[in-house]
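Design a sequence for this backbone.
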């Protein structure tokens, strides 16, 4: 009824399984000494199914991290789409003109600005890589946690107990493990829901990610390989409920209008999903023998599409810190504090920036709107600044983990 491991990872989503695979790839522990736990393991996507409503815009940093643990090359090529350009603009301006900011991968000497990846397929391949590496997968809810000087013990709902030196909480926004570990959160809810769907547009997306900032929230079009776009439409909660209730033709008309007809008429080709938006951050990323990863540590507004990218950087940073430790065991708090100092500062900076952008672009006064248009236009006139912003978004500069930039 009891098993012993070196590292227990709670959460079998992308962040949890990638963290476990990186631990193996960098020989932090042997595969049979790492366990990944989940209430239920994610199912394998049905062959020939449409793209998941949840898609991710992954940076070059994330691509390299996924290569580290054998996930990237296992993703079917028709579930990845590299986009070459990005255009963001204020509703008071026009795409490619006044009040817009455009990026091109050619300007920074890169093949693309990132890749759109099917969320369900990515999750399945991350789980498959962990299984292939020999990591132990356990399907059972966690019902209790005990932390001692010697290690951690997890009680499972089916009566089993697991022991380990280090516990990684990667079980999402409402992380039960974070709560059991006594770590609190702060932040606030946005009065917005994000609608997600796939649409076909009259005009080609031109390998470009488009984002229009409306007073009610940003609307993004992410290009897919079959010519469609995946939309993320953040809007006020009441408006989101009204939009979800529309028929396909009505929804298409409203989406076309909200987009400023940047891609012409829009036709809905999928169901519409939605999720509430919030800013949330853990007051501490670590506790004795515990570390938080991904959404368990931080949740940001999706306007920049950086949520998973930040979570994967958490994984890579923690592995680097553990690999570089000179003294202390896997759960040594002084070692874990180095991870916290590194990632908490980076993630809080990103969260604050995204929150500030959301507040700025939600202001509808003519004065603020005019200043936004001027500001976007001013940034667009400086090629060196555009290049720096693009390289930072790709994860090519900044305080980044060593392991993912040392690999091609």
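Sequence:
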């Amino acid at each position: 009824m009891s098993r012993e491991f070196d590292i227990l990872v709670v959460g079998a989503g992308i962040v949890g399984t990638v963290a476990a695979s990186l631990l193996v790839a960098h020989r932090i522990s042997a595969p049979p000494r790492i366990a990944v736990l989940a209430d239920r393991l994610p199912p394998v996507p049905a062959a020939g199914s449409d793209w998941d409503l949840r898609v991710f815009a992954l940076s070059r940093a994330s691509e390299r991290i996924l290569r580290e643990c054998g996930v990237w090359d296992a993703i079917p090529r028709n579930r990845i789409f590299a986009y070459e350009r990005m255009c963001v603009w204020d509703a008071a301006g026009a795409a490619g003109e006044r009040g817009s900011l455009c990026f091109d991968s050619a300007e920074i000497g890169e093949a693309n600005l990132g890749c759109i990846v099917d969320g369900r397929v990515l999750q399945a391949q991350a789980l498959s890589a962990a299984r292939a590496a020999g990591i132990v997968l356990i399907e059972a809810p966690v019902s209790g946690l005990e932390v001692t000087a010697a290690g951690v013990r997890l009680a499972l709902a089916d009566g089993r107990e697991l022991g380990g030196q280090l516990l990684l909480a990667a079980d999402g926004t409402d992380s039960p493990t974070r709560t059991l570990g006594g770590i609190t959160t702060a932040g606030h809810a946005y009065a917005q829901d994000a609608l997600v769907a796939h649409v076909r547009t009259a005009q080609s997306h031109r390998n470009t990610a488009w984002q229009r900032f409306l007073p009610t929230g940003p609307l993004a079009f992410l290009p897919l390989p079959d010519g469609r776009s995946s939309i993320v439409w953040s809007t006020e909660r009441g408006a989101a409920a009204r939009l979800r209730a529309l028929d396909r033709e009505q929804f298409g008309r409203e989406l076309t209008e909200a987009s400023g007809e940047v891609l012409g008429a829009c036709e809905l080709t999928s169901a519409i999903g939605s999720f509430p938006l919030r800013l949330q951050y853990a007051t501490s990323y670590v506790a004795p023998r515990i570390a938080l990863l991904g959404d368990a540590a931080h949740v940001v507004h999706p306007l920049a599409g950086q949520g998973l990218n930040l979570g994967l950087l958490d994984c890579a940073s923690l592995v680097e810190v553990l690999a570089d430790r000179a003294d202390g065991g896997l759960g040594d708090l002084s070692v874990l504090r180095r991870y916290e100092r590194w990632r908490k500062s980076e993630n809080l900076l990103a969260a604050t920036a995204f929150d500030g952008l959301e507040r700025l672009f939600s202001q509808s006064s003519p004065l603020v709107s005019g200043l936004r248009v001027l500001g976007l236009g001013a940034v667009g006139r400086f090629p060196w600044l555009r290049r720096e912003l693009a390289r930072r978004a790709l994860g090519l500069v900044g305080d980044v983990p060593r392991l993912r930039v040392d690999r091609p």
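The chain has two domains: 2-75+118-186+279-362+397-405, 81-114+190-277.
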